[in-house]
Amino acid sequence: MRALVTVVGLLLMALAVEAVAATQVRSVRLWRAPDNTRLVFDLSGPVQHSVFTLTSPDRLVIDINGATLGGPLNVSTANTPISSMRSAQRTPTDLRVVIDLKKAVTPKSFTLAPNQQYGNRLVVDLFDNAADANPTPVIPDTAANTAPAVPVSPAKPEIKLTPVPNGKRDIVIVIDAGHGGEDPGASGGAGQKEKNVVLSIAKELQRQVNAEKGYRAELTRTGDYFIPLRKRTEIARSKGADLFVSIHADAAPSTAAFGASVFALSDRGATSETARWLADSENRSDLIGGAGAVSLDDKDRMLAGVLLDLSMTASLSSSLNVGQKVLSNIGRVTSLHKSRVEQAGFMVLKSPDIPSILVETGFISNANEANKLSSASHQQALARSINSGVKQFFQQNPPQGTYIAWLRDTGKLAQGARNHVVRSGDPGHARGAL
């Protein structure tokens, strides 16, 4: 009898030790995007997991092996397909989470290793079935060096151009607010988050662009959710963009760094992007299908490469042109970090057929600039300066078949409009430095 008690005691101790050693699910966070809901489980360590669905009623089951629940799964599920969440330990070290659904979804899941902002994470994306039958996994750029790429054939986007009689369509400008959702971007000393600041600027810029006939602005994101970098350029192409403008706020180790910057793609980035586009048959199909200005249909590989090179060269030239106009106007409302457009291999700029610029509106790591960037009046001034630079460019280089091209060709484009810049006595500013 004593031996049996000893054995049972040892088994209980072993189970207790095993449970202590298990990874803890510390918390859960939820983000709602237009076509999906993202659940992020914050973990104390790595785990193995599996996901499957059940019907009648619709449920999603997440089995997390080697894990225990470290706290309640409290999260607001308003405006999501989730009605409730519950959990139970299948064994002392195996956790099951059951999500009761209002409707069927298509789940995608993956784990992420720790980075500078987060520890281990389990990400479960619930895609609305009617929105996308073949969704792209939403993987934050912060995890680019920690999670293997998942090859996915994206659904071919539908061009959404506004039909205007007599070939007088709107010029389409796609505005991209950087970061979003669980990716806050840079942070200011007083808690300002880049993702919130740049979304406010992007919405204000959209409002100003849409206030003038002949232009239409679209946003890549309209709320606090994450969009993969590649998806942002796909959105621009699906909307028939004539220009892509990505809005960000900078950060630096030195809190003294200040000033706004404008970036275009670097030559090195352009070269590697041409190779990527040739290698990716689905992306080539997007262009072939008419989603961009480049047609590679019925072209051999070498000729297709030449056409992409020419398109990228033209796109880079336009990017530098519009970028310099935007930068000059920004310099009238705030300090500049550099007086010329800089070039770097930002992924969101790597579109061979759409001129693209990235605007760093200031250093959110600088207390003074962080306060300005959070100010509605400064956000309006920044948006006004970007808008002025963009319209200067298009008044001089209007795409054929647009209302602005028609105004120019018929001599109805106001002469002053061609050279309009931000006014109201805005003074010039000194350049910032790291």
From TrEMBL:
<protein>
    <recommendedName>
        <fullName>N-acetylmuramoyl-L-alanine amidase AmiC</fullName>
        <ecNumber>3.5.1.28</ecNumber>
    </recommendedName>
</protein>
<feature type="signal peptide">
    <location>
        <begin position="1"/>
        <end position="21"/>
    </location>
</feature>
<dbReference type="InterPro" id="IPR002508">
    <property type="entry name" value="MurNAc-LAA_cat"/>
</dbReference>
<dbReference type="Pfam" id="PF11741">
    <property type="entry name" value="AMIN"/>
</dbReference>
<dbReference type="Pfam" id="PF01520">
    <property type="entry name" value="Amidase_3"/>
</dbReference>
<dbReference type="InterPro" id="IPR021731">
    <property type="entry name" value="AMIN_dom"/>
</dbReference>
<keyword id="KW-0961">Cell wall biogenesis/degradation</keyword>
<dbReference type="InterPro" id="IPR050695">
    <property type="entry name" value="N-acetylmuramoyl_amidase_3"/>
</dbReference>
<dbReference type="GO" id="GO:0009253">
    <property type="term" value="P:peptidoglycan catabolic process"/>
</dbReference>
<keyword id="KW-0378">Hydrolase</keyword>
<dbReference type="GO" id="GO:0071555">
    <property type="term" value="P:cell wall organization"/>
</dbReference>
<dbReference type="GO" id="GO:0008745">
    <property type="term" value="F:N-acetylmuramoyl-L-alanine amidase activity"/>
</dbReference>
<keyword id="KW-0732">Signal</keyword>
<feature type="domain" description="MurNAc-LAA">
    <location>
        <begin position="233"/>
        <end position="391"/>
    </location>
</feature>
<comment type="similarity">
    <text>Belongs to the N-acetylmuramoyl-L-alanine amidase 3 family.</text>
</comment>
<keyword id="KW-0574">Periplasm</keyword>
<dbReference type="GO" id="GO:0030288">
    <property type="term" value="C:outer membrane-bounded periplasmic space"/>
</dbReference>
